[in-house]
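in:
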């Protein structure tokens, strides 16, 4: 991987130098002797496995969490990858979904140092013709943004928001939905793609583009049946906001680590799990690349990618249909990320001056988003009017950079398996990053070369190297369409967090409901395990 600063190129391990990241108690326990017995062995320290481990520790089980990387957190990792003092979120930045997760209260994460900021404005998009739309925490103010583009679309925005609020509790109950006056309308909408939903709701292509750009941040294919929710996130974003963790995305992982260690758990880094230990057809522990072994008397919990999990033990332990389904696992359109240390945030021209939001998106028209899957299938790099997510969290949280400075992240999507071969990304990634930056500069012209202090470019191949769970550059572990969601995730018949091998459980983005920072797979896995152990997650929380 390559880091570019004002002094030039720094290659190799320097770009990935480990930083102090764990509480002192967790670091001290890294001397735990190999083959020590625990109740639970947890493979991987992403936020879902940490949530599960925290509940298990709360229940009194003695757990060890083994992390491949020098730092915990997985997709909620934060590092100084450009210049000292600039803290960059390497994957996720926004933690909206987890705010409603009971784990936030059950585990008292605020007590362990976790706090959030909800920026306002929430999100912004500028168009090449100088028009723009901004989402604010004030719903009516946002509606007036749509009015300014097209009064009909402003009315549609208000109408769909009111309908959604009314029918939301019914969307999982077909019978009750049928009885609602708008039930049959919503039954059809539930089958629609995000693209069709955006076109159904809005008349102006700019309003359609904003709905699609805001929703595609989760990686859902916009033309897949049932992906309609992506086009509605522009409605919910204003009401719920887009929270960011104070100090960086990995503040979530650090709070969970503090909870786990305070409740007797152990967290070890630089421990790559390479093999499941099976005795009498039961998973009883794991072996690591350094030769150490960890045994769990109660269970093993994996957050390894399911594509890697099946290689951790001989195939005879896996049912044939399980292996066949894993072989069919499909990646997402891969993520391409450019991180910058900058002197000032993007400044978008708006009426009366400029606007510098924490989060913005680009999409010139709705059809451009449909090109992503086409280009991915052809292995074609496409930097013409790229759809982008731009995140500048230091606008709301200045603690992430030196005084007066900012971090900037530009996310885009490119094929992992490019026509030139994935190995050629190292030679091509700087060209793609330059094209992304120039796209942003056309909309925020203040970001001239003298404002750029350092950069760190992550191609889809680099993303996979940073974290094996980002298989083929999939930031959400894999495609989230009908064939890999709900009871199909990770494999039909095994969506309840139990695996075919006795004593083995699975969590993380490969399990339902999928990727993004919502913590649901972690809490659900803990609930399943505790039930199998003869108690319940509710009882554990109640007794605490």
């Amino acid at each position: 991987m390559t880091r570019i600063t004002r002094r030039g190129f720094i290659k190799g391990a320097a770009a990935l130098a480990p930083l102090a990241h764990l509480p002192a108690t967790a670091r001290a326990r890294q001397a735990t002797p190999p083959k020590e017995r625990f109740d639970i062995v947890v493979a991987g320290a992403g936020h879902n496995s940490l949530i599960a481990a925290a509940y298990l520790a709360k229940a009194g089980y003695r757990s060890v969490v083994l992390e491949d990387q020098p730092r915990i957190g997985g997709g909620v990792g934060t590092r100084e990858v450009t210049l000292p003092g600039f803290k960059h979120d390497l994957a996720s930045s926004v933690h909206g979904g987890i705010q409603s997760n009971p784990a936030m209260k059950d585990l008292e994460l605020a007590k362990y140092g976790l706090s959030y900021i909800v920026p306002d404005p929430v999100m912004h998009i500028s168009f090449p013709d100088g028009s723009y739309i901004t989402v604010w925490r004030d719903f009516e103010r946002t509606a007036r943004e749509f009015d300014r583009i097209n009064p009909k679309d402003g009315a549609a925005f208000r109408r769909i928001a009111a309908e959604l609020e009314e029918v939301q509790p019914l969307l999982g109950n077909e019978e009750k939905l049928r009885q609602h006056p708008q039930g049959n309308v919503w039954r059809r909408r539930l089958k629609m793609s995000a693209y069709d939903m955006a076109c159904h709701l809005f008349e102006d292509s700019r309003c359609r583009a904003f709905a699609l750009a805001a929703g595609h941040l989760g990686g859902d294919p916009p033309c897949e049946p049932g992906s309609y929710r992506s086009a509605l996130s522009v409605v919910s974003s204003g009401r719920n906001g887009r929270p960011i963790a104070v100090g960086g995305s990995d503040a979530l992982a650090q709070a969970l680590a503090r909870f786990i260690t305070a409740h007797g758990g152990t967290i070890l880094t630089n421990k790559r799990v390479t093999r499941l230990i099976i005795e009498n057809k039961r998973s009883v522990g794991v072996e690591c690349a350094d030769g150490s072994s960890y045994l769990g008397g109660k269970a093993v919990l994996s957050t390894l990618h399911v594509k890697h999990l099946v290689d951790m033990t001989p195939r005879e332990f896996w049912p044939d249909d399980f292996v066949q389904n894993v072989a069919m696992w499909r990646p997402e359109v891969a993520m391409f990320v450019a991180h910058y240390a900058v002197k000032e945030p993007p400044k978008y021209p708006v009426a009366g001056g400029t606007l510098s939001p924490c989060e913005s998106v680009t999409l010139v028209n709705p059809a451009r988003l449909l090109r992503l899957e086409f280009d991915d299938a052809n292995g074609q790099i496409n930097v013409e009017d790229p759809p982008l997510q731009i995140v500048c969290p230091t606008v709301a949280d200045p603690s992430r950079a030196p005084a007066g400075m900012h971090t900037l992240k530009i996310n885009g999507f490119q094929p992992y398996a490019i026509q030139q071969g994935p190995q050629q990304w190292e030679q091509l990634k700087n060209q793609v990053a330059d094209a992304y930056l120039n796209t942003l500069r056309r909309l925020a012209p203040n970001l001239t070369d003298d404002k750029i202090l350092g950069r760190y470019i992550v191609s889809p191949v680099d993303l996979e190297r940073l974290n094996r769970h980002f298989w083929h550059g999939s930031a959400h572990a894999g495609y989230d369409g009908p064939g890999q969601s709900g009871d199909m995730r990770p494999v039909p018949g095994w969506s309840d967090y139990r695996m075919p091998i006795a004593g083995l459980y699975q969590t993380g983005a490969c399990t339902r409901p999928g990727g993004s920072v919502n913590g649901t797979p972690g809490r659900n896995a803990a609930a399943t395990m505790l039930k199998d152990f003869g108690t319940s997650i509710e009882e554990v929380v109640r007794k605490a």
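note: The CA atoms of residues 429 and 459 lie 6 Å apart.
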